[in-house]
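User: Protein folding is very new to me. Would you mind checking the protein record under this note? It all follows right here:
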Amino acid sequence: MVLIFRYTKPPNEVIFIIMELIYFAAAFVFGFAVYQLKLPPLIGFLLAGFALNLAGYKSTELLNTIATLGVTLLLFSIGLKLKVNSLMKPQVWASATLHIILSSALFSGFMLLLSLFALPLFVDLSWQSALLVGFALSFSSTVFAVKVLEERGEMGSLHGKVAIGILVMQDIFAVVFLAISTGKIPNIWALVLIISLPLVRPVMGWILNRSKHGELLPLFGFFFALVAGYHAFELVGLKGDLGALIIGMMIAPHKKASELSKSLLNLKDILLVGFFLTIGLNAELTTSSLLAALLLVLVLPIKTFLYYVLTNMFNLRARTSLLTTFSLANYSEFGLIVCAVAASTGMITSEWLAVIAIAVSITFIIASPLNKRSNEIYAKIEPWLLKFESKTRLSEELPVNLNDTKIVIFGMGRIGTGAYETINATHPQLVAGIDIKPEVVDKHIKRGRNVLIADATDPDFWQRVNHSRVEMVMLTMPQHMQNIFALEQLKASGYKGQVTAIANYPDQQKELEEMGVNSTYNFYLEAGSGFAEHVKQKLFS
């Protein structure tokens, strides 16, 4: 006799699942529509959240959990790419500290000024409440910056590292504030946990090595980000997100950290869709909150300008400071958390949560096209910016000398390295590699390769380098848009030699060829052809 068990979901559970399906369907529709306008899909996700809110929908517990998972994995991924010594540089810690102090004073003063005109919401603010909201507005969005930098392939660039470093410093300030304001004092086990972390690190490395390359790799990331990181830190009275970040930083030096980060990328991005939806869904949309948010957005240019001035003070080039500034030109989701704590203690009304949510969303919409066109904007205002640029250069931004190089390879990852080795075997001393990441360049130099650090998408780079003797440029950077930007700058610099580039898909090959690339290489397709050719040689030699 065969027994068949049929499981029927409770009606409420079915409703909740249908709700999530509606939310993500709306996110896709809005994201797709916005993407056709050549804007980042995250703007569409935000608009979907507000549209659903206006239609009467509210965030669910499941969607909030998805959003929390996304942010936790994001911080873990940041940790995987972050070196502790990068936070010790003055352009990071000093810029972040000074900016929080100055921008908090700026926003609180602006809001107290508005209270004199008896404007709704502002009129009830005390100076303590105004300072707290100003502190919340001083942060910039980690989620937004990482998304933008990842899409542009600039996480390893100097401006990307400075921006992420400043954001991590801001997160540390926020965690300290939350610990003090909530009265949540870490217990004695917090000290035990912190002391034990260096002892656990070799164990994590051992497990990571044996997780290989399959489904165990992302599961490793899930376990250490959410269990060993988030929940372990929460249990001892520390912020869970901080735990995920620290665990990621501990794994960062491991040789498989980059592969681990890539294995989590798509899942993390899907979970973050839930985060962007919750911003719009959780906002209490009223005329007063919308007016207050618009007034706060008016002060954003001053906050943004402060970033530029402060980073420029510490000898960053004008372009580096500008691109760092654009990545931070918004308000932060962390401000919502700070205001939520303040609202729970009665320091501000709950309406301020809606104000911050709306302001964050508007600044995301403003900052997205700003970042997309950052190189174009820099090219237009470069003469003016250079007047205020420091004459001192950081080691990462020194001029590039190609000498008698005939072939230049941009992007020294696996494909670029393979190309370098093949060419160097028959034409030594004639090939040079260029990469944006200092650690990658150091690794190649130690192995005797002629590799220099530079940003191929930087217009200034093409002004500082003499490529008159270069006969071929090979674009092997992992992100398609990086190769497009580099090609645009290469053409603008008057280069007349041959150009070849890699691509992931046929439509990318077509775009590159239409821009004048002499030959393209689809490494997904060509990998199979190369393998077959290798087998033929073995069989018939």
